[in-house]
Amino acid sequence: MADRPEEALMTSDEEAQWRTAGDRIQTLLDSCAASGAAAQERAQQLVREVVGLYGAALERIMLLAQGGQGPDLAERLATDDLVASLLLVHGLHPHGVHRRVSDALDRVRPYLGSHGGDVDLIGVDGDTVRLAFAGSCKSCPSSAVTLELAVEDAVRAAAPEISAIEVVAAQPAHEPAVIPADSLLAPLRSNGHSHSNGSTWYPVPELAELEPGDVAGFLVSGTALLVCRVGDLPLVYRDHCPVCDESLAGAQLRETLLGCPRCGTQFDIVHAGAGPNGTHLEPLPLLLRDGVPSVALAEPMGAGA
Q1: Phi, psi (degrees; rounded to nearest 5) at 206
Q2: Residues of the signal sequence (predicted)?
Q3: What are the residue boundaries of the structural domains of the chain, listed by start?
Q4: What is the pTM for the complete model shown?
């Protein structure tokens, strides 16, 4: 569809169809009203959400167009998260699945590196992506879940048509596997829609305001978090010192070391929060989702029951 000539963007029949779309939407809303007030309200809310999404995307398109005309405009639109999501829905994205997955992994690679890991795209076969992981996260068992969420989210967002991910354990012999190949991304292999640990992404736009070297505390969905920014990379950990079992509130960052203000233990935050004698902080996934910093947290036990 992206190759359609400019002089034939819309036929007369297509134009007539969209000119009457408002009438058809109203007819559908009226039919929902026949099922009761609750059904009508849900239908109206759905329309409002869709209209809001497309309105935000159109506004973004106009801002990008006004920021620079020329042959690179299509590329700028394709690499904008919000606009790209709508291009994918309608099959209009100019990039193939291999390029989209590769670009998505490039965006999360600095984050993977902060947890001692890396990922290579081996290939895309139909609706299956093949990846190879490298690095070492042996000092932090929770990094396996962290990397799983980061990679799964990146792939799903960039290529919703992908239904399976195959992990190839291809790292140097002297390095242990970052994540066991038989467990990594199991939920994505099975259905591609949910995380096995019930994690939910929460937007925390305030994280974008942190300056390099800042340490700040946040309460998100009842969970106390500690956020450190090293250069351009913000890192999130649960607010808990594994040595003294106390809060890290008031901790200071010196280059890449975070010192507990209670017991004085130093943790290397760019290496998955590793501390002395095998101790480590608990990292949490932090990614940009639709341009907004978001943190993944596991749902409390019994939630939604």
Answers
A1: -65, -20
A2: none
A3: 26-90, 97-167, 200-298
A4: 0.52
Q: Find all residues with CB under 8 Å of 236, minimum gap 6, and list them.
A: 207, 225, 226, 227, 283, 284, 285, 286, 295
**What letter represents residue 257's amino acid?**
L
Token pair 């341009």 is found at: 291
> Which of 87, 20, 21, 37 has its CA nearest to residue 57?
87
User: Mapping DSSP to helix (H, G, I), strand (E, B) and coil, where does residue 3 land?
Assistant: coil
Q: What are the tokens at 47?
A: 């329309």
**What letter does residue 277 receive in the DSSP assignment?**
G
Q: What are phi and psi of 245, to 5 degrees?
A: 60, 35
Tell me: pLDDT of 293 over 90: no
Which whole number is the average pLDDT over 210-226? Answer: 90
- How big, in percent rounded to 5, are the helix, strand and coil portions of the chain? 40, 25, 40
* Angle, CA of 46, 50 and 53, to the nearest 5°: 140
Superfamily grouping for domain 200-298: Rieske [2Fe-2S] iron-sulphur domain (2.102.10.10)
3-class secondary-structure state, position 32: helix
The burial class, CB within 10 Å (0-12 / 13-18 / 19+), for 111 is buried
Token pair for 207: 């994280």
The two structure tokens encoding residue 76: 């700028």
List the structure tokens of 104: 């998505």
Question: CATH topology for 97-167?
Answer: GMP Synthetase; Chain A, domain 3 (3.30.300)
Q: How far apart are CA 133 and CA 273, in angstroms?
A: 20
Cα Rg, the chain, nearest whole Å: 23
Distance, in Å, from the CA atom of 41 to the CA atom of 29, rounded to the nearest integer, reads 9
Confidence of residue 245 (pLDDT cuts 50, 70, 90): very high
